[in-house]
Prior knowledge:
- By secondary structure, the chain is an all-beta fold.
- It is built from no helices and 21 strands.
- Strand 1 and strand 2 form a beta hairpin.
- The protein is globular.
- The model is unreliable at 1-5 (pLDDT under 50).
- Residues 31-32, 47, 60, 63, 100-101, 151-152, 242-243, 291, 293 line the site of beta-L-arabinofuranose.
- Beta-L-arabinofuranose is lined by residues 31-32, 47, 60, 63, 100-101, 151-152, 242-243, 291, 293.
- This is Glycoside hydrolase family 43 protein.
- It holds the Pfam family Glyco_hydro_43.
Amino acid sequence: SAAPSADAPEGVQTDPAKFLAQPLVDTIYTADPSAHVFNGKIYVYPSHDIDAGIPDDDLGSQYAMRDYHVLAMDRIGGKVTVGPVALDMKDVPWVSKSMWAPDAAYKNGTYYLYFPAKDKDGVFRMGVATSKDPMGPFKAEPAPIKGSFSIDPAVFTDDDGQSYMYFGGIWGGQLQNWASGQYDAAAGNTDLKQDDKPALSPKVARMGSDMKRFAEKPRDAVILDEAGKPVLGGDHDKRFFEAAWMYKRDGKYYFLYSTGDTHFVNYAIGSSPYGPFTYKGHVLRPVQGWTTHMSMVDWDGKTWLFFHDTQRSGKNHLRNVKVTQVHFNPDGTIQTIDPFVH
Ligand code: FUB
């Protein structure tokens, strides 16, 4: 395991005391933490970062991950167990590369691992794998979820037992390539370059009762600005980039997401799992490292934000997950978290 940022480039913060929270594990690099409480324990489903020697680019080619490990803990602040390989790319016949941000769900005695990866044509799809154990190993379905595309699945189960998948990511996540409903390579590698038009929306689809398919064509989960208008493509501080997450509190649906190139975690609130969601503000200010990605979960009467930064390595593609408490205002808005101590 690396000492904190032993190999950090110049100008990167290395003093642990300057970070609000500390890495949860130091034996592997982890990112994109999706936290869940199953059977009274906390399980985190992260990406497993590796150094594949690929230089940084706008497509995120440096994020060349190949497998997943699950983290488990009995309590926040307690010992964190790093599970064995939960799913390996070599055991998923349709995958060529890029095992990106996963999520998990539970239904009727089965745990479901959802993961985005590039298929043999280099197009991102969403896979699903199952296990009787939340730590895995998971067995993947032989084909991706029909009608799935882009990245960063987050599966939320509502109080009535109905589950929904939120997903999508622009730039390397390819959401712009699906604007017409069909994959269009000509849409380019970033966004639609239509700054005065509504931004690309994240997607939401109701899951079938078997949790392995979409029960409907994915819909737009529209994010509105404070004036009730769709957030515009040019509004990089507010528009959706990637890292969808859904959290429900007091009957309100909190949609969390990353703004990518402006590095915020934002939230928007709606009254239905389908949205629309009205922008409310930042949950997390920019962390160290290019990407930011989170999940929010209740545990022991408190709410927690799992997130990542690059404290241990100082490198964008070698991240470490962390957790910190979230505080709400009486009106249900979230107090913005600064990842650095001042
Ligand atoms: O980990 C690879 C990608 O980086 C994720 O899918 C994005 O959310 C970003 O964190």
